[in-house]
Amino acid sequence: MNDSSRERQADALVGQLQRQGAGRLTIFLGAAPGVGKTYTMLTRVRELRRAGTDAVVGIVETHGRSETAALLDGLEILPRRRIEYTPAGGSPHALEELDLDALLARAPALAVIDELAHRNVPGSRHERRWQDVIELLDAGIDVYTTINIQHLESLNDVVHRITGVRVGETVPDAVFDRLRDIVLVDLPPRELIERLHQGKVYVPEQAAHALQAFFSPGNLTALRELAMQTAADRVDSDLREAQAARGLPGVPVRRGVMVAIDGRGSSEYLVRVARRLAERRDAPWTVVTVQAGEATDDSRQRELDRAFALARRLGGDALVLHGNNIVDALLDQASRSGASAIVLGRTRERPLARMFNRTLTQQLIQRGAHYELTIVSTPEARARARHAWRGNHWRGAGWRGAGSLLSRGDTVLALAAAAGATALAWIAERWIELDDLSLIFIVAVVLVAARTRMTAAVIAAVSCFFAYNFFFIEPRFTLMIGARQGAITVVLFLVAALVAGRLASKLRMQVLALRAANAHAIALQTLGRQLSTAGDVGQVLQAGRDALRRALDADAVLQAGEHALHTHALDEKDRAAADWAMRHRQSSGRYTDTLSGSAWWFLPLVLGDRETGVVGLRMPDNVGRLGDEQRRLAEAMTEDIAQALMRARLVADLEDARVGNETERLRSALLSSVSHDLRSPLASIIGAASTLDHYGTAMDEADRRSLLETIRIEGERLDRYIQNLLDMTRLGHGGLTLNRDWIGVDELIGSAVTRLQRYEPQARFEVSIAPDLAPIWVHPALVEQALFNVLENAAKFSPAGVAVVVDARVVEGALRIDVRDRGPGIPEDERRRIFDMFYSVERGDRGRQGTGLGLAITQGMIGAHGGSVEALPGADGRGTTIRITLPRVEP
Fold first, then answer.
1. pTM metric for this prediction
2. What's the pLDDT at 242?
3. Cβ 348 vs Cβ 380: under 8 Å
4. What SS3 state is found at 604?
5. Is residue 499 pLDDT above 90, yes or no?
6. What is the spatial distance between Cα 111 and Cα 115, in angstroms, rounded to a whole number?
7. 29: Cα separation from own chain's centroid
8. Is the pLDDT of residue 113 over 90?
9. Distance (Å, rounded) from C-alpha 315 to C-alpha 311?
10. Pairing mode, if any, of strands 804-811 and 765-769?
């Protein structure tokens, strides 16, 4: 067991010891209200009760759902605690809350606590219910509870970006660390929306509002994905912790195959062997290589690139691992990926390493007891074995291999560093009288190792060794060493230089690897942030192109269906490569084996079972070979862009469906209004006219005038309905233009009151206008119509003989007109909705005789002037106040 495995085991054991003696927490997690969390939890509690578990219901909210309430029958329910609560400016009243002390005194084996994110009534012991649950767990009581995914603290910002709703009641993620089990209660969005329509989640008025806001199909789909991801992460975490506590690697769920290659010949052969092995086992497979601190020469990198490309074509994954120890890196990756078989070629075995059981194969056999090791004898290895007795393998091969790792520039730098160190040592000895000159040469070796490859560091160490011996060890200017102490010094210097060079070179390679990994992560994070704010397909493509340009320093073209972003014209060869990539869902063009004559590298955007887009990348002309890190980054970013496009398409489709449903609802409401509110005055007019036509000569003058008055009143009523419909049409289609003029407030109010009293002679008004109120700059006819609608609404529902109060004054630099009636009033939860079109209730503008357009038109007309309309309660709790606010301009 290596150090990292011991640390993981120690942390897991400490965590388990800390939880011993404490209660166990089970959370029923859902994506949104109404998916059935409480129902599922109570069903499980009833099963446990039948099995003999001492379970007590601490608090459960049924929200009026009869099927949930039925599950409480037969369960022990703890009486709730009543707490006196006095809101600011209100009267005290009693509220019911969880009786935590009684539940602790009862000390059941299992406590059922609904709605983990609930905020307790002021005066309770804890501010939040999750704090009550923590106290129960610390007391050794198991807890069953429910929570929606939007209440998790770490996801608060994510939920806000998805839904536009900032959730105020959240639960810290640390509570999830107390989990024993998590139960995901899932319901497809279509079924949840159907439950909303059926009134099984909210009352009908609340359900309609929820469907337009939080419970839209796009929001529910995104929240469902978050809930599934959270549950999956928790399951993986529990499995890893349990295995780590036992000192075991992760348990492979599927028997995966992992093949290790090194780029020193036969890499593609090993890939094909692993593919055949995985195919026979019907298992996933991965190709890996380990960079253990030394640089990779061009020929070896090209072989690795070819092997990785072959693996991807054959359906496998390809990864580059970083680590100082190859065996640790391979075993850790096998544990993380769930591989059960490791395939590798027969390695070059040094006799000394084989003698001490330190070869790669021997170490894997000793430490990989839980894995199946397959050692493949490659064609090159068999050829070496046949000719080994001739010595062909050893003759000059080592130096040729070392030379291939070294460039001319690295050699010059190593020799220059040795020469510079010699000159600096001579100056230090002559002018500073420094005794230990070896430190200067060691620093030179470290500097070379930090800037170049390991081979250059070895050359620098050997050069510094000979320079130090020749110029500064007695007898000087010879390679002889005069004393035994001098010989030991020189040998130790060489060892120290080689070790320091090795360590510095490894550190440099690790820094480069971490820098590349950090750049990879930052690029993906930046892309994810930009894609999360993209609202449609065009914005997704634009964000993806910008991110690809920045991360890869390449030109990019993207196409998804009819949407395309092109900055360069593609020739026929490029278009053929792009079309091939879309049709076959595989990369093509440059850096591939398909249509490689194209200057662009095309990657497919898989947008579903049938639809495919494409991403085209054009690297600078001087980039002859694409590194594996760049390839993996481009593929990862392309996959993220494809996922974002699919979400954007889904949201657009759902929005189209929602708009279509809303249009149909408005059409039905309009037809209903026309069929009732417009036909009623027409029927009165026709009836009065028919009576005059048939019996007019037999009627006296008073009856005829009464019928004529009925015709006139009903005609004016019909005219008002039609005018409201026309005004609403103009407001909805932007056809409303403002012809402003100066007009006095008293004139506006007086005109509207006089006009209304012609239709409603019994209506009474008390008008109060502040003295010296200056004229306002408005469209007089529109504002008068808005006032008329409000006054008509107030007069219609005021008690007989009670005046409607109209108060006009300047408040905080704006004109405020309050129209107060003494009618039945409007409940607080409906005051905003009365401004919606066709919203019909038995109060306000939505009475039986109204079309439901008056206040909606008023809001549109006043809003066109930059003002606002709001509904407020009456001064003493009776009636309703409609407040119109208009900005003032000094004449």
1. 0.36
2. 60
3. no
4. strand
5. no
6. 13
7. 18
8. yes
9. 6
10. parallel
Lowest mean pLDDT among 36-45, 84-93, 262-271, 346-355: 346-355
Q: Are 603 and 587 in contact (CB under 8 A)?
A: yes
pLDDT value, residue 112: 94
Torsion sign (Cα): 388, 392, 394, 400: negative
What does the pLDDT look like over 73-84, one tens digit per residue? 889 999 988 888
For the chain, the residue count is 891
CA gap 599, 621 in Å, rounded: 9
| Residue of higher predicted confidence among 483 and 217 | 217
Please spell the DSSP secondary structure of 274-338, one letter per residue.
HHHHHHHHT--EEEEEEE-SS---HHHHHHHHHHHHHHHHTT-EEEEEE-S-HHHHHHHHHHHHT
CA dist., res. 580 & res. 648, Å (int) = 25
Q: Pull the structure tokens for residue 777.
A: 């700059």
Token representation of residue 519: 């750049």
- The two tokens of residue 424 are 């600096």
Cα 601 from chain centroid (whole Å) = 29
For 484-505, what is the mean pLDDT?
A: 62
Query: What single letter denotes the amino acid at residue 697?
Result: T
Tell me the two tokens of residue 465: 């060794």
> CA-CA distance, 645 to 639, in Å (whole number)?
10
Both tokens assigned to 477? 């200017």
Question: Closest Cα partner for 820 from 807, 833, 830?
Answer: 807
Q: What average pLDDT score do residues 698-725 get?
A: 78
CA distance 271 to 787: 81
For residue 253, what pLDDT is reported?
Answer: 45
Task: Give the percent of the chain with pLDDT over 70.
Answer: 73
Q: Which residues contact 825 (CB under 8 A, 6 or more apart)?
A: 843, 873, 874, 877, 878, 879, 880
Is 766 buried (19+), middle (13-18) or exposed (0-12) by CB count in 10 A? exposed
Task: Round to whole Å and give the CA distance between 614 and 586.
Answer: 10
591 DSSP β-pair partners: none
DSSP string, 552-591: H--EEEEEETTEEE-SS---HHHHHHHHHHHHHTS-EETT
Average pLDDT over residues 423-439: 78
Nearest to 296 by CA among 461, 502, 501, 455: 455
Query: Is there a contact between 861 and 782 (Cβ–Cβ < 8 Å)?
Result: yes
Q: How many Å from the N-terminal Cα to the C-terminal Cα in the chain?
A: 87
* Residues 635, 640, 641, 647, Cα dihedral to 10°: 150
* 3-state DSSP assignment of residue 272: helix
Cα–Cα dist 267/259, whole Å: 10
Whole-angstrom distance, CA of residue 562 vs CA of residue 90: 59
pLDDT at residue 151, rounded to an integer: 86
Quick one: pLDDT at residue 241?
58
Nearest residue to 759 (alpha-carbon basis) of 709, 723, 803: 709
Backbone angles phi, psi at 170, to 5 degrees: -125, 160
Given a contact cutoff of 8 angstroms between Cβ atoms, the answer to whether 638 and 621 are in contact is no
- Which of 13-17, 86-90, 823-827, 851-855 shows the highest mean pLDDT? 823-827
Q: List the strands of the sheet with 372-376, edge to edge.
A: 317-322, 285-291, 256-260, 339-345, 372-376
